[in-house]
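YM 10:42: LysR family transcriptional regulator sequence, as discussed on the call
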Amino acid sequence: MKLSQLRAIVAVADYGNFSEAALELNLSQPAISHAIATLEAELGVTLFARGRRGAVLTAAGERIVAHARQSLQHLELMQKEANLQKGLDGGQVRIASFRSVATHLLPVVIARFRDRFPNIGITIIERPDYLDIEQTLRDGRADIGITYLPTSPEFEVWELVRDDYVVLLPPSACVRGTHLTWDELAAYALILLPCLPCGRLLHQHLTTIAPPMNTASGIQEDSTIVSMVMQGLGAAILPRLAAEPIPSSLHVYPLPAPLKRVIGVATVAEALHTPAVFAFLDTLKTFDFQRLATIT
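YM 10:58: structure's back
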């Protein structure tokens, strides 16, 4: 029996239908339906009578939901007791992130956080892509993940920043005007990150919007791509944060058809976080990361 099932049965009992319960728990209606159906199968009884008027507790459901409420209350009391014992005088916050955010955005947050909570340790776990970051969260090896949005419903998420993809042209490039056309970009050998997994968004965008171009996508490191453009070996398309620091001699243009990656903060929905983790999440929410990313 899972905590998510207990939360689902209580929410459906409170709201009388699956759709409002899903909104309350920030889950999809199919996820709520699956949780209830799985619990009914495990218990061997029907918990709700489904009909036009919504979901009504059966006699067995009424007795079982009372126990579910008690279980959730006990879990909340356990967490409160643990929080009282731990406080904010110590503890650890583990953050899984890809390099560009770990380099350009997280240090300023960590500096402010340590001013307030000097005894809480911060660990940054760098991962090459968002799939690894999300798996690190699932495995319990990180408390907070910086990933791409949207993500799966098992995570509680909120948007951190939107990062524009930009075109980098070598120092010798000569482009008329402030905007680049696809034809002008096609004149260069185009160096991209591999398609999977982090480059998938860009590759899909180019396949849908752009004409065929001469591309190479075997290089794994953002900094290597920037160095190759510096040497006149081609042009590149990278998220701006990933390209930073951009050498001043390179020419930077927006894509002919704009594209952004949406970066968000994720935590496992059912996780019981320590006060240190909640404090760090609150600190993250105080920053205007869109402005910070623009001036980086």
